[in-house]
Each structure stands twice: as C-alpha cells, then as structure tokens.
Amino acid sequence: MEVNIAGTLLKLLQGNIVEQDVEAIVNAANTGLWGGSGVDGAIHSAGGPAIAAECRRIREEQGGCPVGRAVITSGGFLKARYVIHTVGPIWHGGRQGEDELLASAYRSSLQLAKDRGIKSLAFPSISTGAYRFPVERAAGIAMATTKDFLAAHPAAFKEVRFVLFTPAVLAAFEQALGKVLESAPAS
Ligand code: ADP
Fold first, then answer.
1. Model pTM?
2. What residues are paired with 9 via a beta bridge?
3. Ligand 1 centre from 9 Cα, in Å?
C-alpha cells in the first residue's frame, strides 16, 4: 500500500528492515543502546561492530536514549547510511503514558531524520515485539503520528517506508492507515 501525503510517499510493505535501501533505517532500541533481540539484534548483526561502538560513545556522552526520544549512528555494513535508534515504551497496560511515548518515538525519529536532511527512511513496528504493545493500537498511533508529521512538513522526505515483519502486522498497519486517511484524506 502506498499513498502521497503532502509530497512524501508513505509506503507499507512486508519485509526485513535490515535489507532496506533507504538512507536511514529506524531501530527499536532500548534506553541503554545495548543491542537486544528482534529488530535491534538484526540491525547490529547485519551492520557490524561500528554501530555498537557509536552506541557506546553516545551512552558515555549522554547516558543512552530516553523512552520516546531518538539518536543517530552510521549504518556500518548496512545498505542504509544511518541508523536512527529510538526507544518505544514497554507496555504496562496502557495507563502509564504508553500511547504518547510511542507517538513521541515516531515523532522524534522523523524530526531527527528531517533535521539531518535524510530523504528516505524505513521504520519497523516499534514496541510491538518484546515490549508487548498491542499491535492494532500501535499501528493506529504510528499511522496517525506519521501522517500528522508529513502533513505539517510538506515534502520533508521523498519516502517514508514501514517495513512490517509478518502479514498480520502489515494488515494492522494497512487498516490503521485506511482509517487515518478516511478521517483526513491525503492531498
Ligand atoms: P520492541 O522491543 O520495541 O518491541 P522488537 O524488535 O522486539 O521491538 O519487535 C518490534 C517488531 O519488529 C515486531 O513486530 C517484530 O515482529 C518485528 N521485527 C523483528 N525483526 C524484524 C526485522 N528484521 N525487520 C522488521 N521487523 C522485525
């Protein structure tokens, strides 16, 4: 599925985030930038030790990355030149600010990419693996936040891609994007 929002192509597809030929891919990281399972593990193993070395430097300089924020490193051996590491919230039932923190993780990543002049960007589904955020709810937040950001910053990017690992997650994102566009059609 793809749609143009204020001059940026927004694409949803099934695939592996580490294989994407975009300028930056987004990592579902943890606050210590330690590398972990899921997306994080896949990025560090495909990208090689340069990414972990830069994460270590960021950890030493600023103590890591708070939930809802984002930092950037190079992409090592990846096709992507940069990795934007963002930290989504761990799901604790939904009453501990999880929705806003997840929106903030997407917004911070988009803002950091835009500030760096990055023109193409790929996201995974943040927080919906080890962090257990319910996927339908997360997809709604991801799509609404991204649509709002793109609408507010015309032609900020050439392309923003969501690379979803399974058909079920892709379907949840497609449904969420459909709903977001129904309430405010893309230009
Ligand atoms: P978090 O810790 O933020 O929950 P995870 O990496 O555990 O992050 O999972 C986030 C989502 O990414 C899940 O839907 C998971 O299935 C998916 N995922 C895992 N590996 C990859 C990959 N290589 N590319 C894209 N998505 C992936």
1. 0.97
2. 4, 159
3. 23
